[in-house]
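Got a spare moment? Tell me how you read both lines of this record:
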Amino acid sequence: MNYPKKINVLTKIMLILFLLMIGFNTALQFFLTIKGTGISILDIYAQSLPQKDTKEIEYTDTYFVETKSYFEKQERGQCAGFSSAYVLRTFGEEISGRENYRQLNHKFSNGYVMPQALIEIFNQYGHHAEMLHGDLKHLKTRLNEGNPIIVLIGHFTSWQHYVTVVGYDEENIFLYDSNMDTDHTNGYNRTMTNTEFLSQWENEIPLFEQIYFVVSE
């Protein structure tokens, strides 16, 4: 019987793995600090991954969300706060984009916000939020449920931007973009062709391409 010896070896292996994990986390936190990112390893570990959308595809050729809110022009880097405030207002919450942005967690020093922050702010107000991954058919199917949908568009590290989809037709996607004019005339303030939208929705961020936030009561 050599059980004690095996247990001793296993204990050593676990200790080594534990020390390696501490070393990795320490090095990662040091890297985040010297780079001045503004986030910590706790922010990284808090971030959940988008789930594949498995809802059955079913949507109309043209659709606009009936429940609308007012548009606001954001300050630099505050798109997460303004886009989520727009959606919150459609659920009856009276909140400005600026006020909402101040409440968000998981912020980089440049003002950018990790996706997890949007899920948390909706949960904070008692609304269920999911971060999903899918294609344009999935996005249109979800929009037909009746609520605006936040998407993340961009080009790798050059820029990333949260915008809110409020409608579509066969060739275009209609958005509320808080970085553009606050024109309320059409119920949206930005139009992108399907091709243009897809080129930016495929934002080149590994694991977070073509993501969207579905919010419900």
In short: The chain has two domains: 9-48, 51-216. The beta strands are 51-52, 63-64, 128-133, 149-155, 159-168, 172-176, 190-193, 211-216. Residues 51-216 form a domain with the Cathepsin B; Chain A fold (CATH 3.90.70.10).
